[in-house]
Design brief:
Its cofactor is pyridoxal 5'-phosphate. With about 800 residues, this protein is α/β, with parallel strands linked by helices. It binds ligand 26Q.
Length: about 800
Amino acid sequence: MTSRSGYWRFTTDTTPEGIREAILTHLRLSLARSPDTATPFDWWVSTAMMCQDHIVDQFLATYRAQKADKVKRLYFFSLEYFLGRLLPQNLINLGILEQTKKALTGLGLDVDQIFEEEPQIGLGNGGLGRLAACFLDSLSTLRYPAFGYGLHYEFGLFHQDIINGYQVERPDDWTRFGVPWEIIRPRFSQVIRLYGSIEWDKQKPVWVGGKEILGVPYDYLIPGYRSPVVNVLRLWRSKSTVEFDLEAFNRGGYFEAVAEKSFCESISKVLYPNDKTEIGRELRLIQQYFFVSCSLHDIVRRFLNEHTDFDDFPSKVVIHLNDTHPAIAIAELMRIFLDEHNLPWSKSWELVSQCFAYTNHTLMPEALEKWSVPLFERVLPRHLQIIYEINKQLLDSVPTTIPQRDELIRQISLIEETQPKLVRMANLAICGSYSINGVSALHSELLKKELFHPFYILNPKKFHNVTNGITPRLWLLASNPRLSNLITEAIGEDWPTDLEKLEGLKSFVADPAFQEKYELVKQSNKAELSSLLKQRYNFVIDPDALFDVQVKRIHEYKRQHLNLLHILSLYRRLLDNPNLDIHPRVFLLAGKAAPGYDLAKCIIKAINAVGNKINNDPRVNKKIRLYFVPNYGIWLASKIIPAADVSEQISTAGKEASGTGNMKLALNGALTVGTMDGANIEILEAVGEQNIFIFGLKAEEIRQLSATGYCSRKIYETDPEIKYLLDWLGSGEFTPGESPAVLQPLVHSLIDGGDPFFVLADFHAYKEIQSKVDQQYKDRKMWISKAILNTASLGWFSSDRSIQQYASMIWHLAPCLPK
Ligand code: 26Q
């Protein structure tokens, strides 16, 4: 097990020679290895330790300054942080990437090989977790005082293998060989309680009994890009409060004691691999409460270190809820004020309701978190009492004059009157927060108009929009060095912290010399990806083909099956007409399905089955190919995105809250094929309608169609092409040697399952826009100029802009610089 040893200080020399010495010293003194026996992993660890040396002093200075200035801090609460590999990102932010590469090369090492030794930190499912990671990068870059809080999962998001076309999951044991980044601080551990009961002591409730769990903080230091500020991501790991129960051992109850220990450790064992709510899982509720309680106690402790009067709490502490997953924090902070610090109810509520801000990340009503009251009462009895009281006051506060008051009260209540009753976490988050926001303009509007309408009526000023963003340090500088160099050559080197400077590229859109260089960049990225995929998976990909990319979690609403139906249609047309004049195209899809989401897994199987057929059919495989790339994550994204020509963003309108892959791809010069959904709409506004391919029903049209009755079976029966394609897909032809029923669930969902995401309704519009894509791609000059325009127009989608909006509009936060 590797751990950082802090007994010696290295000079933070940033020359290649200094870096080389630091790496060698760590290899010898921290790892007790010599260069002739060191493995690539040893070299990686030594390099990471050298990098960390450059970060720690900056961290100490940052914290010292924050404390001296008694600053207001942001506390970002998230169950997910999808960080990926930290070494390249940290080296870039510190400005020592090139020197480090030189040092490693000088030691006779292969830099890429060393970097790939780093286990990826996959503590997230998808967009929400990656957004949290991008936000941490921007917070440090913009010098805001901030802490991220979350869980130190022992197992992150599963690895996906594709075996015979099926997704097979493997556990992600990312900490197995130790993590040189983490600083374990057992002295700042917290003890939290679960289960038990409430006793009354002179009218004061006391939560007693149940289980006590220890939370141990693991700190990750987050440097900003060329910034003196280093913030902290503090992740809690659960442990038993008793390391070894000697008493139980002596009385022969050893196995019981071990079971108890294993329960405690199970809390932070594994990330839930769903990106949709799975109602009623006790361990998930415990995960949420465990990390929230540890974090809030840590925050109150830090506050009391620096201040004396709780009245100052809201001006020094803002807590951001990344979706409802940490919403129990509202009841927990109430409990801490009421029961642990003896503040009266009204004072506690006054403070609590000024501290929290909540971001919603989904419009799907079925994805809102709800917990059954009996479960809640068993696990968190005191919190249920508090929630009942908050609810009483909330409902009493509704003016008697308001129209349809009873209906409104039923909708905003924190309790859903079902059998059993349910606690609605979104309602708790809204009523306890002073700010609620969505993550794209459309999404925020729909929150006000539909999902949270009753709350909006009562309190319209609470509602905001902050459109998501992505960090250009990862999604351009680190992932696409060729394009980054070209941009710097053209407009200077300020763009990574001021992304709207990319506008400067607009004057090069029609410049033939620049176009040529831009095309060469894209071409090289495509060639690099082709050879990577050839090497790893034996995929055969012509770098001159159009690279058509759909990479994201697999979900019906994201409609990978709409993509697939179009590919099938192309296949059919090519078989019918071998001379069909289309530019060769490679369809690349990648993404994980939640392990319990059978239809999503069936979509993966269908993509692989159709791909297998097409790729091995010499009649068409020079024109089209279809590959599913296994185990999509941050690293694969950073390889695929710079090589994409077309970005598929084809969710059912009104379903994708924002999307961030859409931004990553457009920034890297892929043209979007997209619906009027999420941030696609704002991307359209930024790039102009000539530079994007928009198709399909709009959110309002989808709503109307649902209301008036959408019948997918009727489409199937009356549309010969759709009928043919669905029958073909379900015929068994694509799954030779397996039951012909393998793809039936997918076909069935589109016909008699009612096609809940309007795939058939949008099929023809999609097919048409795809043929427009094909025609336009043939005009290479025109296409390249549109790609350049996409890069030039995407500056606003930097996560720096998102964070600046949060800081000024919602958090009321000021930067703090180390002296
Ligand atoms: C909840 C309860 C139990 C188990 C799992 C969950 C759970 C976990 C993760 C529910 C949802 C998520 C993740 C959601 C997510 O990634 N949403 C995406 O957030 C992005 C950032 O705002 C948006 O761009 C995407 O549109 C949105 O889908």
